[in-house]
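Async update (no meeting this week)

Hi team, since we skipped the sync, here's where things stand on the single-chain job. The sequence we agreed to prioritize is pasted below, unchanged from the tracker. I ran it this morning and attached the output directly underneath so nobody has to dig for it. Comments welcome in thread, and please keep replies under the output.
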Amino acid sequence: MEQLEATGCGQAMDVYREPLLIKSKQRVQKHGEVFTPRWVVEKMIAIPGIKEKTEDVFATFLEPSAGEGAFLLAIENAKLQHACRNYSKESWGAYALWALTSIYGIEFLEDNLNVVRRGMLDLFAAFCETVYGRPISEETDLFKSARTIILANIVQGDALTKKNRWGEEITFSCWSQVPGTERMVERTAFTYSSLLAESRDKAPCPQGSLFGVLEQQSGEAAPAYAMADIEQVWREERENG
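Output:
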């Protein structure tokens, strides 16, 4: 623990840029696209009740209009800082991945989707470099699993229609920690529409929003992947792809 704190890993990492508020008038008119300034993002995630959830690697957040990921990056940054302050160097990688599994986003525009995915992966890599004292290789299990989780959790779609550009249901993955283990995960697919169902008796995965965590549970989960180590989930993606 002391070794991680000594690296400064628990401090805010300013590796994501201030977003443009408007890319073009045409995009505003066509898509209503106006980005949130960073100072507003920081105030919002500091709200009591939200702040505590950003300091829990398992508390889930869903941003239904991700843009270039200002909120998602801020939440990821806070969660990875928390992992630095609370877990050893040996455990950090696993808990950093658990933090990624808790962050979900939907974005309609493909260019924005690519930006937010890349930004989240770059932020993760920056923390890894600080923790381990060297750049992380893209060939490591840690990096590949981080990329797999981000691609599964940050998806293209329209939160209003609940469908993606192919007309399919927006689908996420629930990443459940196997009870009594630190690293084992059970992955289950579920649809976005299941989160919005009126009946909340069963949940595919406890979900949250930028303004709190929904404790109610709803919908039906699709068949799960095989149980795996959290740093090996990229293999599951390949084998089930």
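Quick observations from my side:
The first helix runs from residue 2 to 6.
Residues 2-240 form one domain.
Reply here if anything looks off.
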